[in-house]
Specification:
Length: 45
């Protein structure tokens, strides 16, 4: 299991700063070696 690249964490964090979703409970990131990124936001409420 490898860690996510720092640049990916920072980009996602900065992108989510502008979103107003008080119901977000979790964010899942998946980064594959062929440069595909999957972002799942889990909402409750």
């Amino acid at each position: 299991m490898s860690n996510l690249p720092d640049w990916l964490i920072i980009c996602v964090w900065r992108a989510l700063l502008g979103e107003i979703y008080p119901n977000i409970r979790a964010i899942a990131l998946k980064y594959s070696q062929d440069s595909k990124i999957l972002i799942n936001k889990i909402l409750f409420g």
